[in-house]
Amino acid sequence: YFKYRTYQDWLNLSDTVNLNRQKFLIKRAIQLPVIAVSYLFFSYFFNIKYVETDEFLERSFTYRLLYMVPMFIIFRTRLYTAWIMSEYMSITAGLGAYPVKSNPRCGDGPTDFKQLDVAYEEERDNKNGDYNFETIHNIDIYGCELASTTKQGLRSWNMSVQYWLANYIHRRVPPALKSHRVTITMAVSAFWHGIHPGYYLSFLTVPPILMAEEVTTKAFRDGASPKMQRAFDWACWFFKMRGFDYMCMGFLLLKLGSTIRYWYSIYFLGHVVIIILFVLGKLVLVLNPRKPLKGTE
After folding, report:
1. Which listed residue, 20, 106, 161, 194, has the most CB atoms within 10 A of its CB?
2. pLDDT tens digits, residue range 34-72?
3. Domain for residue 223, yes or no?
4. What are the TM regions of this chain, as residue ranges (predicted)?
């Protein structure tokens, strides 16, 4: 996603901005070899079609449960590649190039318009001008992989569309429905992807995950020692990645029956864990309310 202004700026300023794009292309290419090899390796041994067979259901519970891990690796490395290549095409064409002084943001474009005009004049004939392509920067792989919470991970995933959802859906939900903003946003995101039931089953699992994370953070992280906070962050990261594994099966299986059939084969463990964490966090907050210590929030 990018604004019409970004498209218009590209058309009107492509001849005046003489920018060396090589350094930006190299920076994005560094991650591609590992991503491509991972995709080819795991897709050779694992296939989503196998999940829909009777033979798969005869496998052990552990096998069925762990099968979603390589499936999510295949799923996200495929999308990583597509998004990096889309950024490649945009960078090559010069789409989304703005001076750093204009403080461009993903999806939004420049935010300091006074500095924008000044910087254009200063950098017009400078091949090594201080520009970036943050406007069309769509994926932060390190954020997706290493962020400790689902909320942080989602913000690093398909970032320009996240900007669109946040600004044009989430923030425009009427005040009367404020408590349902996340659910409404996720429903719109599912519809944006398509009409397959698997999208809705996956996206509508996000709100309870975020609720469980928020409650457990208040119960176990806030007010804890730095050592305990680090331990909690690692546990939360593990929960985030397994949650993504669980939800990606809806994206891959797509059909209502196929998705429910798989989740049933692992006893809806993802939903069960969400409920357990939420209830446990609530109990801890009721029985042992904590006040955040200074410097630990």
Report:
1. 106
2. 999 999 999 999 999 999 999 999 999 999 999 999 999
3. yes
4. 29-46, 61-79, 266-287
